[in-house]
Amino acid sequence: MKETKKKYAIIGAGFSGLAMANELKKSDVDFVVYDSNSQIGGNWYNIVYESGHTITPKKVMEFPDFKMPESFPVFPSKKQIQDYLQDFVKQKGLEKHLRLNTGIQLIKCLPDERWLIQFRDGNEEEFSGIVLAIGLFRIPVIPNYEGTFTGEILHSSVYKTPEILKGKNVLVVGAGNSGVDIVVESGLNAQTTDVSLRDTPWIIPKMFKKKPITDYLGMNVPLWIKKRIIKHTHNVIFGDIRDYGLPKPKHELFTKPPTVNESFIHSIKHGKFALKPEIKGFDGKNVLFVDGTAKEYDLIIFATGYRPSYQIVEPGVIPVEENRPALVHGIFTPLAKEFYVIGSGVPNNGIGPIVFTNAKLISKAIQLQQKESKPVGIIYAGLGERTNPLRTTPKACIKRFRKLIEKTDSLIALQKN
């Protein structure tokens, strides 16, 4: 039986969903938070491996109104992040709003502009609005190759502990942040470890001159100056990576997310793993490479990223351009009322302060929508500029959202006149 309740549904209980929950609670808006996992934390619970640490310092991870403990290191561990979020939920009184172990099959817009959630267990419920907080890491990507590999294949999203590596010949494909962590861990635990690269990433250290690298990434300077500074830190810390057999990156810095890791270069210096070119195909347990060589492996771990997907939302709600979601400011859709997305346009070097500001903006937008006949996404499409998260900084991102909040306040004031 359908139940009708005047409340908002937040989908996802990670950083973004919890920030939104806290803001709606402060605004005295009724809501419930759904997550298919048994614990809060989002990717930090579901995807991150047990030895994982943040690649950004705690000061750009924490919520502005809830600091991480001083006892935490500069780069907290997975467990510490989970503990922090659990404490946040308790301190902010959000427990009663959580509905964990609750999978969602489909979100539909009804003719009366309310929203229907169909759950995987067959139940359904109506809501006044939806805030989607499921992030970008949705569908693991594993490339297709000729032939069949008869060994074991995993995506990095399901890798948790090094126990599965012991005694095996392992090939890791990809050298993003997860890939290099797994390569380093495999080099210490597997019988042999290789890494297959299509292109060398820009590898930068977590720290430089006693400061987190994000301090340099966040500087308010022209992009060309920032590139020069980051390339300088790369050269000072690592030297010429070609000395270790790594070719120079084919792509320009910041056109793809850089890899933040010192241990990768340290491990290759000490012979913990070997480099392999791009994969051409498979023949049983043999992997065939584009340079004509082949090698037998027991396990391949694909650290090849994710494809963003909002497949739990019916078509026609989220605009799509070039097969990718095209949300206004990464939050709003011009196609439907009372539907918002939080956490989709976050730069790679910070989340807490940004989703904190996102949540405030969405809370204001909900207020604005009450007296608007058209979706507020249409209004926001004419406010501000779209920016590439890879080419901006947390400070610039927050500044942009604060300006949108100010403009929203002005529009709300006009509604009252």
Automatic annotation (TrEMBL):
Q: Which UniProt keywords are listed?
A: FAD, Flavoprotein, NADP, Oxidoreductase
Identify the Pfam families for this entry: FMO-like
Which InterPro entries does this entry report, sorted A to Z? FAD/NAD-bd_sf (IPR036188), Flavin_mOase (IPR000960), Flavin_mOase-like (IPR020946), FMO-like (IPR050346)
GO MF terms, alphabetically ordered: flavin adenine dinucleotide binding; N,N-dimethylaniline monooxygenase activity; NADP binding
Q: What is the superkingdom listed in this entry's lineage? A: Bacteria
Family of this protein: Belongs to the FMO family.
Output the PANTHER family linked to this UniProt entry: DIMETHYLANILINE MONOOXYGENASE
- What is the name attached to this protein's record? NAD(P)/FAD-dependent oxidoreductase
Q: Which organism is it from?
A: Chryseobacterium pennae
